[in-house]
Specification:
Length: about 675
């Protein structure tokens, strides 16, 4: 039902007068931009219920922000307001009266966003904002524009995107506003997954208001997309780690906070025999640590992902009590905004009687802290059901962008799930359709845009059961170019574990009829700075069918796979993109552990392709000599020596250049004999 709010008399005149006076922003986040048209048709959603319709065709109850799956959002208080933060990959907005846009050729999307780094690309520069419209199988991916770097100002801002509402080739109707007869999936709101218009690839984006309207309903992007400058703040320091070791009685710019509802007790001789330590525990439930001297920065700096490495005692008295320990609350800004870490991320103690060392990652943390008593701080920790003793605590800021420490993790050896180091989880899964083996792995769900066909294939003398993408043999409307495989019974461990280093071995039919066809594991779930997102393998990792009329193997390694799956649940690794009807008869996965007794062990080592013969050539060019070898030999180093009778091999000092698919090292001829070799 449409609900219309009418304003009357001089109040209306007072509200609309600014539109005549203000032609461009930046506009206050407390009111609609003065450039909006009160006579346009507008559907909007406001997370706080503070914005009212400005005209008879403005509707406040039309839009809904979806959540769940890969389009999860969570409430967040930041910048003095409560909004929705994208913690998945997508922001999907449902319009219950999506039919209103059936004849609208261009749709404007007005959004109030918080000015954080999620608005920009990974390099800190503007990037395209892409959207998904239409319903399966007829999809469209329009670009709505870019947001300038000035938007990362730590404030609430109005931004305006503009997308074309193109027509579907199948029936000539527009992607937004109607549902075609061949629609699949949840198209209840005229789009995918229960939505109408989906923002693509926006992890970490924070929104407060979203409004749809025809072109010009809110003004022009040049009017709206102007921003207040960020408040002055000293740049982030060239530091990223603090810590305290209670047992060693050492500290590096970190102290235990002992006040209010977070008082603590210090106890000696905590732990099992042979590993007694001095440790600290909360008297109540909260344990907090303060950073001294603003060593990691100031509250006016941008919120960052923080990683904490904690050594805590799993007391035997905790067995069966469900005691939980982990990050609880953290500051989202310097104004007192509070965020809460997911309860599911807390560690459930089992009463093993051992010291546990593990990490916790929380994105979007401001250094203002929670009850930090004038110090800066990271997330506050909570002990539920029992007082957990901590002997050592380290806190790292994961720097990004152009910071000198960008991309570095000073706590890389501290993992989020110690079980990946103990062998508690399986490290091998196999599907062999010919042998009838489904050891933790099977063909995934066949449907939607990934229909698959299992049938006999192969050369005349070696026919096997195998699976291929359906391609044109599937339901019309999809290309059916994908293969997906389900991991069974958490064979490789739970989804809660950190991203795994996964080796993949596939046995496929090298069909002469498909020579040149490419295939590869393409898209998968991964984690970036504590946020679940999509990862993609590089295009040059694809294997090409050579047409030998034999069964062959292909091998890949993906260093950062989460097992949440892409269009395949409850668990899967990477979804394969296949350029033709290529048959797979077996698929094998092996997890290469980063630590423990199995560290570096690859059960699929034998599937790796044998290194091809590498030719090393020397070409004289004037008074120089060029040493050349194929660019595929990326793991080789060029060495030289002046004698073979008593060789003293050492690496050449010149850096190889890549020229026409060859590595080239150029040296000046100096009259002395030299010998060269490539070594791996």
């Amino acid at each position: 039902m449409k609900t219309t709010h009418f304003l009357c008399g001089s109040v209306v005149a007072g509200l609309f007068l600014p539109a005549l006076l203000a032609t461009e922003g930046p506009y206050s986040p407390e009111d609609w931009p003065a450039s909006v048209d009160p006579n346009a048709t507008v559907h909007f959603v406001d997370t706080e219920g503070l914005f009212y319709p400005l005209g008879a065709l403005w509707y406040s109850d039309m839009l809904q922000i979806r959540t769940g799956g890969d389009q999860v959002t969570e409430d967040i208080t930041i910048g003095g307001h409560t909004g929705k933060q994208v913690t998945g990959n997508f922001l999907n907005v449902a319009d219950s009266f999506y039919q209103d846009w059936a004849d609208v050729p261009v749709i404007d999307i007005l959004v109030q966003v918080y000015g954080n780094e999620a608005l920009l690309g990974g390099d800190g520069q503007p990037r395209n904002f892409n959207f998904l419209t239409g319903v399966l199988p007829d999809l469209n991916f329009p670009t709505g524009g870019q947001i300038p770097v000035e938007a990362r100002n730590g404030k609430w801002n109005w931004v305006l995107f503009r997308i074309p509402n193109d027509t579907r080739p199948s029936d000539g109707a527009r992607y937004i506003g109607s549902i075609p007869p061949n629609a699949q999936g949840n198209s209840s709101a005229g789009g995918v997954n229960g939505g109408t218009i989906r923002f693509e690839g926006v992890p970490g984006m924070i929104v407060r208001v979203i409004a749809f309207g025809p072109q010009g309903a809110f003004g022009e992007p040049e009017q709206i997309n102007l921003f207040q400058p960020a408040d002055f703040c000293d740049p982030e320091p060239e530091t990223n780690l603090v810590g305290i070791d209670l047992n060693a009685q050492t500290a590096d710019h970190l102290v235990v906070i002992d006040n209010g509802d977070q008082t603590v007790m210090y106890v000696d001789d905590v732990g099992p025999a042979g590993d007694k330590r001095r440790a600290v525990a909360p008297n109540g439930t909260f344990l907090n640590f303060g950073i001294t001297d603003n060593y990691l920065g100031q509250p006016c700096n941008d919120p960052r992902t923080m990683k904490m490495c904690v050594e805590f005692y799993d007391d035997p008295m905790f067995a069966g009590l469900g005691v939980r320990f982990g990050p609880e609350a953290y500051a989202t800004d310097a104004l007192g905004g509070i965020g809460f870490a997911p309860e599911a991320s807390r560690h459930v103690l089992q009463g093993t009687g051992e010291w546990i060392r593990r990490s916790f990652i929380v994105p979007g943390v401001n250094l203002f802290g929670v009850n930090a008593g004038g110090l800066t701080a990271g997330p506050r920790f909570i002990s539920e059901g029992g007082q957990v003793f901590v002997s050592r605590f380290q806190l790292a800021v994961l720097r990004t962008g152009e910071h000198p420490l960008s991309g570095q993790d000073p706590l890389a050896d501290c993992v989020a799930d110690p079980n990946i180091c103990t062998g508690a989880y399986g490290n091998y899964a196999e599907l062999d359709l010919q042998a009838g083996i489904t050891d933790g792995l099977d063909v995934g769900s066949s449907g939607g845009d990934q229909e698959m066909i299992v049938e006999e294939a192969g050369p005349a003398g070696d026919r096997r059961m195998a699976v291929r993408p359906a391609r044109e043999d599937g339901t019309p409307g999809f290309t059916h170019q994908y293969l997906n495989f389900a991991i069974l019974d958490e064979a490789l461990g739970p989804n809660s574990q950190p991203p795994a280093h996964l080796a993949i071995c596939v046995t496929y039919y090298d069909d002469p009829a498909l020579t040149g066809t490419l295939f590869r594991p393409e898209v998968y779930q991964t984690e970036a700075n504590g946020v679940l997102t999509l990862g993609f393998t590089p295009g040059d990792s694809a294997v090409a069918v050579e047409g030998t009329d034999t069964w062959r193997t292909a091998y890949w390694e993906i260093p950062n796979v989460k097992f949440n799956g892409v269009n395949q649940g409850p668990q899967a690794a990477a979804r394969f993109a296949v350029g033709g009807k290529v048959f797979f008869t077996s698929v094998k996965y092996a997890v290469i552990a980063p630590c423990g007794a199995l560290a570096g062990v690859n059960l699929l080592e034998d599937c790796k392709p044998a290194p091809e013969d590498i030719s090393l050539t020397a070409v004289r060019v004037g008074n120089e000599i060029q040493i050349r070898w194929t660019a595929e030999a990326t793991d080789f180093v060029l060495q030289e020596t002046v004698s073979l009778s008593d060789p003293q091999w050492g690496p050449v000092v010149e850096t190889p250049e890549l020229v026409d698919q060859e590595f080239v090292v150029t040296q000046t001829i100096e009259g002395q004999t030299r010998f060269y070799r490539l070594i791996k």
